[in-house]
């Protein structure tokens, strides 16, 4: 029986000669057929990034030996390495509050098979979207948060992530700020959608601010969540033209489509193992 | 001999019933053939805006009586009114420092006839672009500015504006901050290009900041100049996608095309008498 | 009890002086407070278009007398007039085949309240999407079509439209060509999404054609359906950049987001009574 | 004295294992420091493409031995190879007719130093733009073309290209169709700008056609010229939104900015040796 899946290496290391050669030589020696290879050098920072994907069929190493065999090369070049397999189904938790356009969109992408993931869990600080979770047959955990109970509720949430073996958390217009502790538990594993073209209009009510400032273009930004609110590494942004005719309400309405598409693209890129975060920026291999 | 020109009224006033009717009735009673009419109501602020353009040929009032005859209506509705004629050739002064891409673009648009304006004067705080002025046969005034001489040099500049009967000042990457006094002399008559998507990255070196922040889209913004730096009413913005591959230098290179097109569109809209500024925002009739 | 709804007149007629004045005068005489007014003159064709929306609260005429009272003006100017009320909930039927991304998106917009419509019926030539209809509690009519039964099945479909009192038919990737007879029954009442930037790549498999031609941008087009396939009046288009890296499969994947957003905007504009079709083109008041 | 320049290899060959490894190994063995490496595999066609750029400083081979030494690898993999040096100043001829916006833009980019090229020659079938050539100090050759003299005038033009050692011909709204013979002399060395979003609206008057069809977006396309009119490999495209308000004249005016930016980007990509044409498509390494 053939293995149609592919393997993906995500590599970052100090820039130096011979890395591409070393990696591709490793794959060739084990009969690896490269499907895709992208590399990027940040010459200012002196950092090298690489994503290489190859067919597992015909590859001379079994999956569970790749990391070990590659570690020689990795160590020699001080690489940080991630190894992924294309047929792994990531487990995604969606966090929501009351707005449902983003979660609707994500669940539909799962439902139509566009996203090859499991979505076993929705977490919310409000009960409003439980019926939607029911429609799609997804568990819904109501974790109401007050000033007093925040720490313990966050711990409960972290426990849920473990219990459900969650790989990726998507904040689909979740209106709670995650604590430093929470963020550190899931580095580059929490994706948020912010409803402005960051760094313009950080914080609450960005459409109101955009209207107030009279901008002619609005945007949305998806980023990994760090303990600095709205300051994490940007994965994707998109914009659209507006005009003086647009009220705050119409900015909100139009912006919803931006939020949906930007969040879905960021999640897609992450799921395809195409994103490498460093120094509050990202390399997104296309 | 026929008069192929048109007249344009730009109106703003407190919102109330019957304004469109009053204005269109006035034009009809004098046999005015409306070419274009746009109106906008800012319901939050309770302000009404209107632009109406009609053919002068066949219009029963001579040009110099329109304002007086219309003043009855204007007074009744507390209107602020501007009257323009499409065959008037505005006189534009361009302010530059050392970067020449924007002025190149503006002079070419004048040269090809796209802009129906006179550009009698270029003002600069550096001598570098005098040869370009010579190529296009435009006067070049070198007004070098130091901390010590700023006030008097600005007065000299203001005098030049009067001397050359300048209607519109375009800051085409002019790297000096204009004083409050200067700005107040030419309200909504100075257009600047800022090389970022405002309000993101105000101030100097926005491309460096954009690179540092790792944005996936860069922009440019054209606005009327007020005494608040980079805070004046936005007329036009445009953006383009970038990626981790773009160095600061490549952002600067790509951004030049944004700056050119955004500035040229803002100047065009102003020259067509399509822009009404209010409360740090603009209505740009399309 | 107050009537918060508004009334909308959509007007087209031969261009002539005094139309705006006549319409606004009519509204003013009946104490109509205009919320929005847009007009457009196609000077080549000599046709005038207008959309005016005013508050019903305080308006001196009851709803059912507006048409009659306005007919004096309408007749004098040979107007084609549509009168709509903002609180009317249009009834929409969605036609699908097997692809579900567009219908997912439309149903979600209905579900979140973005679209203020009833969607009582889904028609399909395949059974595949019946479970989705069930999820949203919408009737699903399977109308399988063969060469032999096409005429009678279309008649059955037309009967369903009457039975369900359908105002608007949305073809959400419905892969059957409607007959002339069907199209004529619902003039400017059927909206289709075509998965290319028309008029490029008419017909089947446009993403394959786009890939073959090596375009750097793909698009989607929403239009009213006429008996000429892919030739009806265009309501909305959107595009996105692609590159040599995009396979046909990735064009299809990326294109789905274009299709969703373009179709949803076209439907929105229609539902807001903002679209006037003429001569195979549209005026879309913004 | 140091050599700050870089060398660029553009490679295409049948897809097979080990190519990236062979090329990077070659560079490493000669102490080449890779600045940029991009590869692409067209899996349908089974063709591999690669662009690799490395510093000449420190590289162990002198420039004139690179091709020979690399030929071993090239032959083994049946590679088509181009070798370029970043400090070579290409010689560009611009062909124009009467419209000057594109040539204005190109000359300004040369003048400001954005384009590191020589533009020694402008060829035109009309005398109109000779003054512009004079302004920029460029030779202007008037080659008037009639049905009768087309063949001999083309030969004269070809001779001029040889005489001026032209590397790249840019058709900046040149309104003559080049013969098969002419096109074959300069394969992938002639870049044209077409004022539509190809393949929509091939041929003359695309803005009129776009207006007639009522599209909501217009575009421009830059492509290599082949003997099939408007059918050559597309290098770059760009679009912008328009509306029912845009007359043909306003489409033409807005389109000029698209044409300028699309042509300039295509020329830039070509000058950076980033374009590989195959099967009427292009790979444009970013």
UniProtKB/TrEMBL annotation, chains A, B, C, D:
Pathway: Purine metabolism; IMP biosynthesis via de novo pathway; formate from 10-formyl-5,6,7,8-tetrahydrofolate: step 1/1. Coiled coil: none annotated. One of its GO terms (molecular function) is formyltetrahydrofolate deformylase activity. It is an enzyme of class 3 (hydrolase). CDD domains: ACT_F4HF-DF, FMT_core_Formyl-FH4-Hydrolase_C. The active site is at residue 230. Its EC number is 3.5.1.10. Transmembrane segments: none annotated. Pfam families: ACT, Formyl_trans_N. GO terms for biological process: 'de novo' IMP biosynthetic process; one-carbon metabolic process. It comes from the Bacteria. Residues 8-86 form the ACT domain. Keywords: Hydrolase, One-carbon metabolism, Purine biosynthesis. Signal peptide: none annotated. InterPro entries: ACT-like_dom_sf, ACT_dom, Formyl-FH4-Hydrolase_C, Formyl_transf_N, Formyl_transf_N_sf, PurU, PurU_ACT. It catalyses: (6R)-10-formyltetrahydrofolate + H2O = (6S)-5,6,7,8-tetrahydrofolate + formate + H(+). Belongs to the PurU family. Catalyzes the hydrolysis of 10-formyltetrahydrofolate (formyl-FH4) to formate and tetrahydrofolate (FH4). This is Formyltetrahydrofolate deformylase. It comes from Tichowtungia aerotolerans.
